[in-house]
Each structure stands twice: as structure tokens, then as C-alpha cells.
Amino acid sequence: MWPFICQFIEKLFRETIEPAVRGANNHLSTFSFTKIDIGHQPLRINGVKVYTENVDKRQIILDLQISFVGNCEIDLEIKRYFCRAGVKSIQIHGTMRVILEPLIGDMPLIGALSLFFLRKPLLEINWTGLTNLLDVPGLNGLSDTIILDIISNYLVLPNRITVPLVSEVQIAQLRFPIPKGVLRIHFIEAQDLEGKDTYLKGIVKGKSDPYGIIRVGNQIFQSKVIKENLNPKWNEVYEALVYEHPGQELEIELFDEDPDKDDFLGSLMIDLIEVEKERLLDEWFTLDEVSKGKLHLKLEWLTLMPTAENLDKVLTSIRADKDQANDGLSSALLILYLDSARNLPVSYILMDTL
């Protein structure tokens, strides 16, 4: 299948990614791929998990542990600035979810195929001419790391690639499904964190300036920094849309803010299936990958209702907690589908003569 997958990837680059890059910034309006060769080394699938519980009977959910290490040749140029750059090799490792839905009673039995990563995959890119690329106006504030994050997040939920296999399938509903629920995260406090700051060349151990990074899919939140405190109290609230479960997790990392490189203070991963079952979790969690430290979280699973019958009750409830979040707590979700447009004005682009 690899040669045909490569054809699909090339089509994706030219028909989806290239127009998206051109539209992202006026300075990139002449961006184009001049060569796309993904290479002969195929993607490896190191493991497959199939879900049989908590899934719709008209769908099949697969999680694929994928690994790709390939020598490729992808060349791009921005004609306006005579800039050329490229990619010599790519590595990508992570869990890709494949959803086969809807299942139908006629061949090919599957209406469409959806692909995405549940969380940010490990991505490494070997660039050529990256310095030239970052000299382009509008890109000079970027770096290699920021570019990798942008690419990685494009692959992660709620972004997805949807391939229809029959003409009758409702592609919009598959590409932009209604979220399964909303996760309200009360990021409260921590205890007994490691002291990372040192004085007198490391002889005297000090405290830390802790903050947290919270992730659900490609939704990322960062808490405020609490200065010189090993038992910080944040008392902040975040709300994240949950599009997929089982399999999706809440990821939290704590760091000590430093002038150069921030020190790691521990991490936590919580399966959202457990939160949905309990509806409300208010617990102290032991931090992983460190010798000590605990984190106090309150997690609420909010189910989306199709009507506004309980809206007054919800509004009354969140008014009592209105000071917990900077921009207030949510009471409802607005979903807007941009379907089509007609009779748009013609835009003319004047080209300078060289």
C-alpha cells in the first residue's frame, strides 16, 4: 500500500496544506511545494488496539502504534522572496486513531475513514535551508521548535483527515463531530514539590517557581507561575472539549520557571473514561517521573444536552463559581457549520513587473 499512501500524501500536501499556508500570511502567498517524495521506507505499525466497549455499533475504532523513519525529499519555495528550503528526513512516532464509520449494508461496508492522533506525536524533521525560510518576513519570530509544534498540533484532535468511501456519507458530520462532552479542570494546588533552585553554586537548595501545562488533545492551557513555593495554590479553572473517548487522556506537566531552561517537576495522565464514569473527581494525585510531589485536581465531566430546558439551572450553578475562571464558566456550546458561499466579489491581484 505504501506507494498509494505516498500518492495520497502528495495530494494532501498540494490540495490542503499548500493553500492553507498561502492563506495564513500575506508574505506566504507565493508558497509552493516544488517536489514531494516521501521515500521508499514504509510506515511501520507496531501494535493495534480495537475497542469493543463504549463504542457505537455503527463504527469500528482502532488505535495504531505507528513509527515512521524515512529519508524523504520535500522541496518548497517562496517565489516572492527567492527563498528555497526543504526536508531531508522525517521521524514520527505516536498513537494514531482510525475510525471506520458509518458501517453500511452494501460494499465496501464502510462509509468513510477518519484519521488523527489522540495526542501530540513525537516528531523530528531534518531541514535544509531552514535559516533562509526563517528570514522571510512574518516567519522571523518562529523557530524550529515552534514549527514542529504547529505541524504536530495540526495532526491532533480535533483536527482530522476524513476520507469518504461512498458518495452518500455525511462528510461534514464526520469531519466536525459534536463533542462527546466538556471537561472542566479545577487546577487547585500542589504539595511537597522538589526544590530546583539552588544557591552558592548548588550547595544550598532553595525552592521552585512552579507552573503547570495542561493538555487535552491539541488544547493547551498554562497556569500562572507561583514564585518560590513548594506548596503552590493556583485555584484556576480550564474547560476543554472532549471529542474522543475511550483512549483520550488529560495530560499535565509541572515545571519550575527559570531564566534559561525550565526544570521538570512531575507529570500526570488521567484516563477520561474514568472521569466520565465518576462525573466528578476531587482528589490528590501522586506525580509521576519524580521522587515526590502531589497535585490536587477537581475534574467535572459535563454532558451536552440537545435542548435548553436546564439552562436556567446551569446558569444559577455557574454564577456561584463565576470568579474561578478568568473568562467565566461555560453554560452552553455554540457549534457553527460554515456550509458554502455564493456570488463572492472577484479579487484582482496586481503583479509587479520584474
Averaged pLDDT, please? 87
Largest sheet: 7 strands, antiparallel
What's the overall geometry? globular
β-sheet strand percentage: 35-45%
Total domain modules = 2
Query: What is the chain-wise order of helices and strands?
Result: HEEEEEEHHEHEEEEEEEEHEEH
Radius of gyration: 24 Å
What is the number of strand segments?
17
* Intertermini distance: 46 Å
Helix segment count?
Answer: 6
Would you identify the regions where 5 or more consecutive residues have pLDDT less than 50?
Answer: none
Percent of residues in helices:
10-25%
Structural class based on helices, strands and sheet pairing = alpha+beta
Q: What is the oligomer described by this structure?
A: single chain
Verbal overview:
This protein is α+β, with helices and mostly antiparallel strands and 354 residues long. The protein has two domains: 1-164; 181-307 and 314-321, Immunoglobulin-like (Sandwich). 17% of the residues lie in helices and 39% in strands. The chain has helices at 2-24, 130-134, 144-154, 171-175, 272-278, 311-319, and strands at 31-37, 44-50, 60-78, 83-100, 112-117, 122-128, 161-164, 181-191, 198-199, 204-205, 210-216, 219-222, 233-242, 249-256, 263-271, 280-286, 294-302. Strands 1, 2, 3, 4, 5, 6 and 7 form a seven-stranded antiparallel sheet that branches. It has a four-stranded antiparallel sheet with strand order 13-8-17-16, covered by helices on one side. It has a four-stranded antiparallel sheet with strand order 12-11-14-15. The model has no long low-confidence stretch (mean pLDDT 87). Residues 1-166 form the SMP-LTD domain. Residues 165-285 form the C2 domain. This is ESYT2 protein. It is a peripheral membrane protein; Multi-pass membrane protein.
